[in-house]
Amino acid sequence: MPWNVTLRRRSYVNWRETGIGYLYILPALAVILIFHFLPIFYAFYISLFNWRIKQGPFIGLANYETAIMNPDFWGSIKVTIFYAAGIIPATLALSFLIAYALFQRIRGRNLYRMMYFLPFVTATVAAALVWRWIFHSQYGILNFVLGKLGVPAQGWLLEPRGILELAFGALGVALPDWAAGPSLALVSIIIFTIWRDLGFGVVVMLAGLSNISSEVYDAARVDGAGEWTLLRNITIPLLSPTLFFLVIVSTIEAFQSFNPIYIMTDPNWGGPLNTTLNATMYIFQNFFQFTKLGYASAVAFVLFFIVLGLTILQIRVLGRRVHYN
Predict the structure, then answer these.
(1) Among 273, 294, 275, 136, CA closest to 283
(2) Residue 312: CA count within 13 A, CB half-sphere
(3) Are residues 2 and 123 in the same domain?
């Protein structure tokens, strides 16, 4: 058979196989295009107009300029940073400690793993409503327990004052406004979020610990390494890809968090004195309450670029410290 005929036949077979492959992924591509990419492009289109209840005049990037110059927007970013700073380190540290303990050979290990993962698979709305009752200023079980211990009842989800302001105020020390810290209401939501996300971090940490070869530990023990040396020089470095993944995912999730704050505080006013009004709640407020559809869409894109910038920064800075071998 001539060589050119053979090449044409092989080319036909390759194109046929490629076409069949694209047909298989076509439904998934259609779903992604219709429900992901088209809404993104349409949201950007809306952000270029003075869009209220209906489409208004074209104003270009004016909505973006308004967002960047608006102190309320940067106030919501400040709340978001407080929220992320409270969740990420605590969740990572607790997830590592619990996963490291559950990785050991202890009785009932599988039961403990299921118990820690259970909050993560529980419906967020249902769990948030329960924690909202726990933090209730009048009927909550937490204030009931504090009362039995002789501690004054707290406002929790209704308290706009900063946690540091409350702590130092009890000692008679007055702090300036910039040093007050996140409000007690926001800290209450942070506690709930840590409780909810802990199971995911534990499961991922356990998977990362399972990938570390036992031969590495055995060789180090033969050389006389203790448990602390194993933890510092083997476990943590070889677990760094897992930690790196959790840092990036947790940061993105924290900056996009909506359900806990919406359920546990007033969705219309951003909690007590807007102290729980994070960026996503700010977008929701402007979109649905104030019907500033164009402005809210512009804020959403600004938040997207902030999260994108943070992710790139984390990859550049933390990626160098990750050990894959």
Answers:
(1) 294
(2) 6
(3) no
